[in-house]
Automatic annotation (TrEMBL):
The active site is at E206. Residues 1-21 form the signal peptide. One of its GO terms (molecular function) is hydrolase activity, hydrolyzing O-glycosyl compounds. This is Beta-xylosidase. Pfam families: Glyco_hydro_39. Transmembrane segments: none annotated. The lineage of its organism: Bacteria, Pseudomonadati, Bacteroidota, Cytophagia, Cytophagales. Residues 30-527 form the Glycosyl hydrolases family 39 N-terminal catalytic domain. PANTHER family: ALPHA-L-IDURONIDASE. GO terms for biological process: carbohydrate metabolic process. InterPro entries: GH, GH39_cat, Glyco_hydro_39, Glycosyl_Hydrolase_39.
Length: 565
C-alpha cells in the first residue's frame, strides 16, 4: 500500500460558471500509476491532422494554426489534405479546394502547374511539418464525367452535392500515371530526396462511397498505376491506401479486404506481376453523436469498433500485419464542415466535451492496437479551421478566427507526453478498452488515465468523461504514483474545463460578440492557451511515491507533469 507522501488538493475556486452546480461526489476515484512498469514507447499517434480545404493552408488563420500545431509537438506533425489535384483557381470554400496542377492545351497535351501545390507544401515544410500527400482528386480535363465539376455545397445542403466530376476515374490511366510521376519528381527537385522520403503518399479518399465514382476494381487499377508512378520517380517513397470509411461497415470491410487481397496475390495492372507495393495501410473511424432529450450523446464505442475491425482485418494478413497503420480520419463523427447550426448533435465541438472525448478515445486506440498486435503509426484528427466564418459556429475545428478552442489544449497536453507508456492499474476502474468498444460510456463516467515516463519527467493525463454531455457532479480523484526516480520533483498541473483553457466560455461571458474588440480578442487568445490549475509546486518525494488529490469536473481533463534533475 502506498504511503501518502504529498497531497495536492484543489477543492476551492474550481467550480464556476456552467459547472457551478457541481458538487464533488462522495466516492473518491483512485488511479494507480506505476512508473517502474513501462511498456512500449508511447507513439505520438496524435501528431496527425487533416482537412478538406487545402487552400486554407496558406491563409492568415491557417498559417497561424499550423504554426501552433508544429510548436506543440516534439516530433514532426503530419498533415493530410484533400483536393491537391483538383482543377480550379484556388478559391477556398467549405469542402472544396483546388490547385490547377493539371490542365490540357487545345491539342490535349498535359500542362502542369505546381504553384498552388508548392504554396501548400511550402507552408508545411517551413514549419517542420510533413505532408501525407494525397493523390487526388481527378483533374477536370482527365475526368470521364467532368461536368458538373465545381460544386457549390454549403452547410445545410445535401452532402451528396459535393460528389461531382472530380470523383470519377480518368479517361487515360497513362496520363494519370504521368501526372503522378511528374508530381513526385517535382517534389524531389524542390525539397530534396531525403525530405520527400519522409512523406507518405496515398491514393484518394473513402473510395467505398461516392468520393470514388468508379468500381472497386477501377480503384485498384488506379492504385497500381499510381504506386508504379510514385516508385518510378522515387523508389524509396512510401506509398499506401486505401483510406476506406469505417471497417465496421460491411461495404468498407469488403473493400479493404479486396484491396489487401490484390496487394498480396492480385495481378498488377501495370507490371502484370503478382501484387502491388504497399508501405502503409489506411482506413477511417468515426463515432456517431445524436440528440437524446435535447442533450448531445456521443458514441465512442462505434469509433472504436471501426478501429478494432480495421485492425482485425489487417492482422489476418500475415505478410501485411507489421505494416504501419494510419487511421486517416479518426473523429467523433463524419463531417467537419457540418456546423452545429444545421446539425445540433454536433454541439459538442466548442466546449469541453470534444477535448475530453479526445483524451479518452486516444488512450483506447493504443490498447486496441496492442490487443491485435498491429503497428499503429498515427490517427489523423480531421479538424483544422474555417477561414472567415462566424465565431464558434460549431464546425469541427481546432480554432475559430485565429483563437484556439479547448480541444487544441488536449493536443498540447499530448505533446508533453513522451517516452514509454507507464502502467495504469485498471483494477477498480470501471472502463477498459473492451467495455468502451462494446458499450461506449453510458453508465458511470469514465475516470481514467494515460501515463508516460521519459528520462527526466513523467506525465499523467486524467479525464472525467461521459457520452452524455451533462455537467453532472465533479469527482474527487486520487492519483497514486510509485517509482518516481527522484527525491524532489516540480509538479505542473494543467487543466481543460469550464474555467481553464477555454476560450468558448470566455467568449460567452463577453456576450458572444461576432466582432470582438482588440481588447476582447487579446483576452480570447489568452484564454485559448493551455492553463495551469495551480502554480507549479516543488514536491519532496520519499521512497519514490506520491499521492496527488484533486477535484476533476465532468468533461474535464488534467495533465500532471513531474520533472526532475
Amino acid at each position: 500500500m502506498l504511503k501518502h507522501l504529498v497531497a495536492l488538493t484543489c477543492l476551492s475556486g474550481l467550480m464556476l460558471g456552467a459547472i457551478q452546480a457541481q458538487t464533488p461526489s462522495p466516492k473518491r476515484v483512485t488511479i494507480r500509476v506505476d512508473l517502474t512498469q513501462t511498456q512500449v514507447p508511447l507513439k505520438p499517434i496524435w501528431a496527425w491532422f487533416g482537412y478538406d480545404e487545402p487552400n486554407y493552408t496558406y491563409m492568415k488563420d491557417g498559417k497561424k494554426l499550423l504554426a501552433e500545431l508544429a510548436k506543440l509537438s516534439p516530433v514532426p506533425v503530419y498533415v493530410r489534405a484533400h483536393s491537391l489535384l483538383v482543377t480550379g483557381d484556388g478559391t477556398a470554400a467549405p469542402k472544396w479546394g483546388s490547385t490547377n496542377a493539371y490542365t490540357e492545351d487545345a491539342q490535349g497535351n498535359p500542362v502542369y502547374n505546381w504553384t498552388i501545390v508548392d504554396r501548400i507544401f511550402d507552408t508545411y515544410i517551413e514549419r517542420g511539418m510533413k505532408p501525407i500527400a494525397q493523390i487526388g482528386f481527378m483533374p477536370e480535363a482527365m475526368s470521364t464525367h467532368p461536368q458538373p465539376y465545381r460544386h457549390q455545397w454549403s452547410p445545410g445542403t445535401s452532402y451528396n452535392e459535393i460528389f461531382t466530376g472530380w470523383a470519377y476515374p480518368p479517361k487515360d490511366y497513362d496520363k494519370w500515371a504521368e501526372l503522378v510521376y511528374q508530381w513526385v519528381t517535382h517534389s524531389v527537385k524542390r525539397y530534396g530526396r531525403k525530405e520527400v522520403e519522409s512523406w507518405y503518399w496515398e491514393l484518394w479518399n473513402e473510395p467505398d462511397i461516392p468520393y470514388w465514382k468508379g468500381t472497386t476494381e477501377e480503384y485498384i487499377k488506379l492504385y497500381d498505376y499510381s504506386a508504379d508512378a510514385v516508385k518510378r520517380a522515387l523508389p524509396t517513397a512510401r506509398m499506401g491506401g486505401p483510406e476506406v470509411t469505417g471497417p465496421g461497415s460491411p461495404k468498407a470491410a469488403l473493400f479493404l479486404k479486396t484491396f489487401l487481397d490484390h496487394i498480396v496475390s492480385g495481378k498488377n495492372y501495370v507490371t502484370g506481376r503478382v501484387g502491388a507495393p504497399l508501405d502503409f495501410i489506411t482506413f477511417h473511424a468515426k463515432g456517431a453523436p445524436k440528440l437524446v432529450d435535447g442533450v448531445v450523446r456521443m458514441d465512442m464505442g462505434k469509433q472504436l469498433r471501426d478501429i478494432d475491425k480495421g485492425f482485425d482485418i489487417i492482422a489476418s494478413y500475415p505478410t501485411l500485419k507489421g505494416l504501419p497503420i494510419i487511421i486517416g480520419e479518426s473523429d467523433p463523427e463524419g463531417c467537419a464542415a457540418c456546423s452545429e447550426d444545421f446539425h445540433p448533435q454536433n454541439a459538442y465541438r466548442n466546449g469541453t466535451m470534444y477535448p475530453t472525448y479526445t483524451a479518452a478515445s486516444f488512450a483506447r486506440k493504443f490498447d486496441l492496437a496492442a490487443s491485435r498486435g498491429v503497428n499503429l503509426l498515427g490517427a489523423v484528427t480531421w479538424a483544422f479551421e474555417f477561414e472567415n466564418q462566424p465565431w464558434f459556429r460549431g464546425f469541427r475545428d481546432l480554432a475559430t478566427n485565429g483563437v484556439d478552442k479547448p480541444v487544441l489544449n488536449v493536443f498540447r497536453m499530448f505533446g508533453m507526453m513522451t517516452g514509454k507508456r507507464a502502467t495504469v492499474d485498471q483494477q477498480g476502474l470501471a472502463y477498459d478498452y473492451r467495455r468502451v468498444r462494446d458499450e461506449s460510456i453510458r453508465a458511470e463516467p469514465d475516470i481514467n488515465a494515460l501515463a508516460a515516463l521519459d528520462t527526466k519527467q513523467a506525465a499523467i493525463m486524467v479525464w472525467n468523461y461521459h457520452d452524455d454531455n451533462r455537467l453532472d457532479s465533479a469527482s474527487r480523484v486520487s492519483v497514486q504514483v510509485r517509482g518516481i526516480p527522484a527525491k524532489a520533483v516540480q509538479l505542473h498541473h494543467y487543466r481543460v474545463d469550464q474555467t481553464h483553457s477555454n476560450s468558448f466560455e470566455v467568449w460567452k461571458t463577453m456576450g458572444s460578440p461576432q466582432q470582438p474588440t482588440a481588447q476582447q480578442l487579446n483576452q480570447l487568445e489568452k484564454a485559448g492557451q493551455l492553463d495551469e490549475l495551480t502554480p507549479p509546486t516543488q514536491l519532496l518525494i520519499t521512497n519514490g511515491a506520491a499521492t496527488l488529490d484533486f477535484v476533476l469536473p465532468r468533461q474535464g481533463v488534467s495533465l500532471l507533469k513531474m520533472t526532475w534533475k
